Amino acid sequence: MDNSMILELAFSGKSYDNRIKFADNKELQESYDKFYEICDNLCKDFSKEEKHNIIWDIDLAMGAIVDVYINEYFKAGFKLGLTIAAQNFLE
Fold first, then answer.
1. DSSP-derived secondary structure letter, 91
2. Domains of the chain: which residue ranges?
3. What is the pTM of this model?
4. What tens digit of pLDDT does each residue of 68-91 get?
């Protein structure tokens, strides 16, 4: 995939995952802080191990839900992009 025209057009040939900087994303950090605050409130009477296990399970479950959303949006957007591209080539 190093020679992908799509990657070249979108990211100047650089790997797309190297361009994503989650650590620098203030909104993401604020969301994580809120998530852990909620989990702390929900698990305040739990042992440290129980709290860790529950937070991990919630995080995995939410990740799975978000993954489905991301995949569905990607498929819909990709299909739309291909449709628009095909229409442009036909004209």
1. -
2. 1-42, 48-91
3. 0.58
4. 999 899 899 989 988 988 888 777
